[in-house]
Design brief:
alpha+beta; membrane; 23% helix; 293 residues; Immunoglobulin-like
C-alpha cells in the first residue's frame, strides 16, 4: 500500500470496493473436507482479497477543527493506495451543519476545479486551503477519493469558527457554600478565580478540576471574580457578598495597638536611659571639687 501523509479532522471513512473475479466454483460432493478448505483458501487469496485492496482516505484527528475568523483553514487528509494503483479524482465538498436538506457544495476538485480563488488544493488533492475563513464556512467538509479501478473512499471533518469569550456570569449556592462560573460562549475557555482581586488560595476555597466551580473553606464575604479567557481575550464577572470588614478591622486595630505599645515602651526606655546618664554626669561633677581640696 502507498500512503500520502496528512493532518486535520474527523475520520468517518467509507470504502466502496468493487469486487471482481469469477464466482466461487461449485464444490462437488466427492471432495473431502480438507480439499474444500484448501481450494477455498486459494480462491480467497486469488479473488476476494485483491478486490478489497482499494483506495482509502482518513483524517488523523477525531476532534472538531476551530479557525479564527479571517485566518486560513487548512485541511489535510491521508490517502492509502494499493501498489500500482493511482488516484484519478479528489473532490472536496462543504455541507452546512444542522440544516436538513441543505445539500453539499463542491468547493474544490483535483485536478482542476476550485471556487472563486478562495480555495486551493495541493499535494495531489490531499491538502485543501480555504483563505479568509468566515462564519458561513462552518460545517462539515467531505473529501472523496476515486482510483483507476473505480473504487472510492470518503472522510468527514467538522469545522467551526473560533469564538471569543463573552457573557460570563457567577451563580452562588449559599447552602453548599459554592460559586459557579457560567460561561455562555467561547471556544476552549480557561477559568480562574479571584477573591478581593487576588488569586484564590486553599484558605479561601477549592477550585473544581474544570475550573468552573469554587467550593469555599471560609465565610462567603467580599468580592469573588470568575475570569474566563482564551487566545482571543478574556471576560469576567464578579459576585459581591457582605463585606469582610470585621475581621480585617479587628486585625488592624490589634496591629495599631501593638505598634503603639512598642513605641511607648521604647520611649520610656529612652527616657530612663537619658535620666541615668544625667545622674551619672552630675555625680562626677560633685566629686571633682572634693579631690582638689
Amino acid at each position: 500500500m502507498r500512503r500520502l501523509e496528512g493532518y486535520h479532522g474527523d475520520p468517518d471513512t467509507k470504502n466502496f470496493c468493487q469486487p471482481f473475479g469469477p464466482p466461487w466454483p461449485l464444490q462437488t460432493a466427492s471432495m473431502d473436507l480438507g480439499s474444500q478448505f484448501f481450494w477455498a483458501s486459494i480462491l480467497l487469496q486469488a479473488f476476494v482479497l485483491p478486490s478489497c485492496l482499494c483506495v482509502s482516505v482518513r483524517f488523523p484527528s477525531q476532534q472538531t477543527v476551530y479557525v479564527v475568523s479571517g485566518q486560513n483553514l487548512v485541511l489535510q487528509a491521508e490517502f492509502e493506495l494499493p501498489q500500482g494503483d493511482h488516484i484519478t479524482k479528489v473532490t472536496w465538498e462543504h455541507e452546512v451543519e444542522g440544516r436538513r436538506n441543505s445539500g453539499k457544495t463542491t468547493v474544490a476538485e483535483y485536478p482542476a476545479k476550485s471556487s472563486g480563488g478562495r480555495v486551493t488544493v495541493d499535494k495531489g488533492g490531499s491538502v485543501m486551503t480555504l483563505r479568509n475563513y468566515q462564519r458561513t464556512d462552518n460545517g462539515v467538509y467531505t473529501v472523496t477519493v476515486r482510483d483507476q479501478k473505480g473504487g472510492q473512499s470518503s472522510a468527514h471533518c467538522t469545522v467551526h469558527e473560533y469564538e471569543a469569550v463573552h457573557h460570563v456570569s457567577v451563580m452562588v449556592n449559599v447552602s453548599h457554600s459554592s460559586l459557579h462560573c457560567m460561561e455562555a460562549w467561547g471556544t476552549e475557555p480557561v477559568f480562574r478565580w479571584l477573591h478581593e482581586k487576588a488569586a484564590v488560595t486553599e484558605a479561601v476555597g477549592r477550585v473544581s478540576a474544570d475550573g468552573t466551580s469554587l467550593y469555599l473553606n471560609t465565610a462567603l464575604c467580599g468580592h469573588f471574580t470568575c475570569m474566563v479567557s482564551n487566545k482571543l481575550g478574556h471576560s469576567s464577572a464578579t459576585y459581591t457578598a457582605v463585606p469582610c470588614e470585621r475581621e480585617s478591622r479587628g486585625t488592624a486595630v490589634a496591629v495599631v495597638c501593638l505598634m503603639f505599645l512598642l513605641l511607648l515602651a521604647g520611649g520610656l526606655a529612652f527616657l530612663l536611659w537619658r535620666k541615668r546618664i544625667s545622674y551619672s554626669s552630675r555625680g562626677e561633677r560633685l566629686r571633682e571639687p572634693d579631690e582638689d581640696i
